[in-house]
Amino acid sequence: MMFFGALVLAGWLSIYASTQPDGLDRVATNLNFAAVGQGLRYEMPLVDYQLPVARDHFLSILIPRCLGVVAVSILIITGGEVLRYFVNRRLNNVICPNLTRKN
Amino acid sequence: MGVARFADIGLCAKIVKQLDNTANVKVKKMAIIGAFIFASQMLNFPISHGTSGHLIGGVLAAVALGPWAGCLVVAAVLVVQSVLYGDGGLLALGANIINMAAIASIGGYYLYQFFFRRWQRQGVAIICAAGLSVIAAAAAASLEIVLSGAASLGSTLNAMLKYHFFIGLAEGLITWLIIKIFRLCPRNG
Fold first, then answer.
1. Quick check: A2 and B159 CB within 8 A?
2. Residue B53 pairs with which residues in a beta bridge?
3. Cα(B71)–Cα(B66) distance, rounded to whole angstroms?
């Protein structure tokens, strides 16, 4: 349910989000430090949450945003699985070494 | 002796399996909440003076998952935003993780606990903690800007707090609404 909500927010409602600069961007513009570090910029694959091709087409906006929702989930699940693997191995060694020794 | 040993091994295996199942459920919950925070952060809402704000989600994640898991979830969101979309920038990723994942999430969680113990009202505690977590993150960002030599402390802090006060108000209300709607079972400390 919540994941579906995330896809709806990302794919549909985010299109209606305000395009005005956020708090930090506004302060950076007002205090003239927005350009600091700009020389070090390099293009990311989905900059501005849009596909590099057919910009402004609704699919060009919808796909990368939904992709981000999936990417965050995959990153967390992958990290969690890696951590679980090592924790399980450690737990088996510490709590019940007999089980692992048998294998 | 042999029977007792088998019983021990059985108990150990049960404990390990139970811990593993708990971790599995929590990882899935973390992934879903992370996805939701990522989507919510794209929804900029207008505040005053032609400026917008968006959810940080630190308190949302911390209240639903605990402070450390919440911190990891927000950090994962920031990594994806930075690496795939260039939002926030790679150079500022560390500072963003400190401000939005560590300070807003872990700090916000302990603020929530403090307010909840004081008032015994979950809604008020969530709104106050989420609002203050935004202001704390904004103050930390101001200090980092000053340390980088980009602007003076007074002007940066004044400007940041002015805008982030309104963003904090919205963060508090949105966090409370999301927790209510999805029944995220906040931890009561």
1. no
2. B45
3. 9
